[in-house]
Amino acid sequence: MRFVDVKFQFRWVPTLLLLLPIPLFVMLGVWQIDRAEQKRVQARILGERARMPPLDLGDPIKDPEALRFRKLRAWGAFEATGQILIENRRRGSRIGFHVITPLRIQGSNSRVLVNRGWIAAATDGNPVAAPVPEGEVTVTGEAHLPEPPALSLHGNPEAAKDWGRRWPYLTLELYRAATGTQVLPVVILQHPDDSGGFVRVWPRELPKEGMHIGYAIQWFAFALIALVLWLRFSWGRRAEGS
After folding, report:
1. Taking the model in full, what pTM does it have?
2. What is the pLDDT of residue 102?
3. pLDDT tens, 28-70?
């Protein structure tokens, strides 16, 4: 008759490959849980801002980030000379442009850029007409902080000066450098109910914690799998007869 004697045997290779990375996997999982909580809090704050009454622009803005998603309102006159078009803005299956026009705020020298909406591209690729309203207007909309794409070529002030009226993307730093116009550090996404006739559908991308929860589960699963494999390779079997 044979008995199997199972005995723990410490092995360096399984320990180095499996056991030592376990704390790292757990730390990464905890970090993703913390990131998910941060996104949850951020989404709540942005949602609360969106429900606040409009903020009237006029005074200098000290903290642009505090205005993200906040409703804004401004009075003044549009300046056609500073208008630019952002290329390759898609709406459904059609390609077009976003119309960006500076608004000089009434009673001050401050200007704020207004995204007045989407216009289609003609068959030759040029934009359709985007007339600028004359006289004093009231603009309402949501605060937006434009950022460059993850991969941008020739995105420097000198290159932006050669873009003319058609830009591949917008940042406030590039606009100031290329045009010499000082603008407030936010862009107003103009409300659909404002006059002007352009298409204004602004998707609101609130921070989501789901992705981070998924990553946390993966890291914890890696830690569990590594522990099981380490235990499996650390127990040796010794057969004895009697």
Report:
1. 0.71
2. 96
3. 999 999 988 888 887 787 777 778 888 888 777 888 888 888 8
Integer Cα distance of 239 and 217 in angstroms: 39
The predicted-structure confidence for 154-211, as pLDDT tens digits, reads as follows: 666 777 777 888 999 999 999 998 888 899 999 999 998 888 779 998 877 766 778 8
**Residue 51 identity (one-letter amino acid):** R
State how far the Cα of 212 lies from the Cα of 37, in Å rounded to an integer: 9
Mark residue 189 as left, alpha or beta (left: phi above 0; alpha: psi -120 to 50; beta: remaining): beta
**Residue pair 183/176 in contact by the 8 Å Cβ criterion:** yes
Q: How far apart are the first and last CA of the chain?
A: 6
- For a pLDDT cut of 90, what percent of the chain falls above it? 35
Identify the CA nearest to 188 among candidates 170, 176, 206, 212: 170
d(CA 221, CA 25): 9
Range list of H helices, the chain: 12-14, 21-50, 157-161, 172-179, 210-234
| 13 backbone φψ class: left, alpha, beta (φ>0; ψ -120 to 50) | alpha
Rg, the chain, Cα only = 28
Distance CA 75, CA 190 (A): 13
- Pairwise CA distance, residues 230 & 59, whole Å: 63
| Cα 32 from Cα 40, distance rounded (Å) | 12
